Amino acid sequence: MKLKEAKAEFIQTWGALGSSWGINRTMSSIHALLIASKDPLSADEIMDYLKISRGNVNMNVRALIDWGLVKRHMIPGERKEYFSAGKDPWEIARQVAAERRKRELEPVIEAVSQLQKIEDTSAEAEDFKNTLAQLEDFTRKVSNTLNQFVKSDKNWFFKKLMSLIH
Amino acid sequence: MKLKEAKAEFIQTWGALGSSWGINRTMSSIHALLIASKDPLSADEIMDYLKISRGNVNMNVRALIDWGLVKRHMIPGERKEYFSAGKDPWEIARQVAAERRKRELEPVIEAVSQLQKIEDTSAEAEDFKNTLAQLEDFTRKVSNTLNQFVKSDKNWFFKKLMSLIH
DNA sequence: AATAAATTTCAATAATTATTGAAAGTTTAA
DNA sequence: TTAAACTTTCAATAATTATTGAAATTTATT
């Protein structure tokens, strides 16, 4: 297999993965393209490679920057902006975990916690309150654990990962 | 807050969560309804409560069964099928982790592993191979860890979770 | 300040994904 | 074996989500 083909397939694979994770295909394709690329790319290069419009590139690159997965570069003497993505899988996972915790887990904890204020005292109501309490407890534990990952350094993470397996 | 309201909001919250995780809103709403419900429900009851069509209930309940999140009940003397969902968050998470590992992580490992067969030996090709190798290694580690979770019992999981935090 | 280069926005449109509902298929019971 | 009760399928349609592209805006250069 040639380098070019491999990169094209990687972009394809990564794009499909993203879409099964609720991230849109174009966003993950751009991310993959930048991961696979030695040097930062301009909007024009991304448009050209992925055959998508300027507006689309702009919106999805912005989203990637929001997620902390891509950064802007200003090259001295150039007017254009360039974009690059970090290549370390652990850093990528950490960034994604941090954002999802904030965006998805925290709101659930908040909501489930509020819902437990049920006035009824029927057996059914008590049961449901109990289900919610368990859910809150579980979600808090997961959220705390993720938070540790996010704040930890790479070696700590791998050590723990290994300790889980053995 | 009354029990009915709380259940309605829970269904709402859980539905929204699912859709940010690439699971469709109706599927997670049905799941939430069954979690919140004391007894198993029939297709008609689900249709009625969520105001969705029979076909939609059938398809999404089937998907939930595929995911191992819902089971069928036959009540003796009744013609209808009834459905229920497990209420233990740990069991739910385990089931979801098991399925996603199989459906999403394993194919990525396979794909990334294949992609490393790049013939080129330019510095750029070597760099990219290296990125892929790191990605494969990371994904394998995550996959193994998830697999441990999946095979483990509840207490083991919580003990490990706690050991990570402290 | 005028111009050029690049970026951003967003209404229109295209593409995708979810939902309906009626017909076909199955199962159970008399 | 017929009919009623229930489930499944799937083509048509609705709803949602992504994409385009041209106009508006911003930023840099002369």
What do you see in this structure?
2 copies of one chain form a homodimer. In chain A, strands 1-3-2 form a 3-stranded antiparallel sheet. Chain A has 2 domains: 3-85, Arc Repressor Mutant, subunit A (Orthogonal Bundle), CATH 1.10.10; 89-165. With 166 residues, chain A is mainly alpha-helical. Chain A has helices spanning 3-20, 25-36, 43-50, 54-66, 89-115, 123-151, 154-165; strands at residues 41-42, 70-74, 81-85. Chains A and B meet through helix 1, helix 5, helix 6 and helix 7 of A and helix 1, helix 5, helix 6 and helix 7 of B. Chain B binds a DNA duplex (30 and 30 nucleotides) through helix 4.
Q: Layout of helices and strands, plus pairs?
A:
2 copies of one chain form a homodimer.
Chain A: H1 3-20, H2 25-36, E1 41-42, H3 43-50, H4 54-66, E2 70-74, E3 81-85, H5 89-115, H6 123-151, H7 154-165
Antiparallel strand pairs in A: 1-3, 2-3
Chain B binds a DNA duplex (30 and 30 nucleotides) through helix 4.
